Amino acid sequence: MSEKLRNEVLVTIDELNQYLNGNVTKTSLQETLSELLKELLLKKFPFNEETDCKEKYNEVIQDYLYEEIITKIK
Questions:
Q1: Where are the alpha helices (DSSP H) in 1-74?
Q2: DSSP 8-state class, residue 49
Q3: Based on CB atoms within 10 Å of each CB, which residue in 3, 5, 55, 69 is the most buried?
Q4: pLDDT block averages, 10 residues each, the chain of length 74
Q5: What are phi and psi of 23, to 5 degrees?
Q6: Rounded-to-integer distance, Cα 14 and Cα 5, Å
Q7: 8, 36 in Cβ contact below 8 A?
Q8: Number of C-beta neighbours around residue 62 at 10 A
Q9: What is the pTM (predicted TM-score) of this model?
Q10: Kind and range of the H or E run holding 74
């Protein structure tokens, strides 16, 4: 795990604890979770501006998230 990702995970854990203790807002927690998700997705699906098509890249991530969510619901 990269130092940046490790840091993001630790920040998210702290933010969640602060939320549970009533010290941060739901919106703040959502923003922190979004940042962690973005870091995790970029790690799993690196984007290269020189060779990758943004539309196709977005489609791949959407498909991945859809499959992950749907398989967990069933």
A1: 3-20, 26-44, 54-73
A2: T
A3: 5
A4: 87 94 95 92 92 94 91 77
A5: -95, -15
A6: 14
A7: yes
A8: 10
A9: 0.73
A10: none
